[in-house]
Write a structure and sequence with these properties.
This protein is α+β, with helices and mostly antiparallel strands. The protein contains two helices and six strands, in the order E-H-E-H-E-E-E-E. The strands form two sheets. The chain has a four-stranded mixed β-sheet, with helices on one face. The protein has a two-stranded antiparallel ribbon with strand order 3-6.
Length: 105
């Protein structure tokens, strides 16, 4: 399986965690809509690229989401191994109130 499906209103692909700032905007949009899942290590076309994963990578994603999305939320983060490639899954549920992102520190 070298394809992961396609993006939709509840699924977003990011090549790597280096795209976290763009992913934060997507998290906020998902929270204000139906919820959704972001996959790091997957190209926009759904090709599995893989992602280097460490405990600090997961912690960094979680902290950035918790610190930049208001009110604070706790995402569900999992590491998936697909055909020898590591993919990070970040799942958020629909928010109960409108949330926003702080773009400046």
């Amino acid at each position: 399986m070298d394809r992961f499906g396609q993006e939709s209103e509840i699924v977003e692909f990011k090549k790597s965690v280096a795209q976290i700032e763009k992913a934060l905007k997507t998290v906020c949009a998902f929270l204000n809509h139906k919820g959704g899942t972001i996959y790091f290590g997957v190209s926009d076309k759904g090709n599995i690229l893989g992602q280097d994963v460490s405990d600090s990578t997961i912690k960094s994603i979680s902290q950035k989401i918790r610190h930049k999305i208001r009110p604070e939320i706790l995402p569900e983060i999992k590491v998936l191994e697909i055909e020898g490639h590591m993919v990070i899954e970040v799942k958020v549920s629909e928010g109960m109130i409108n949330l926003n992102i702080r773009l400046k520190h």
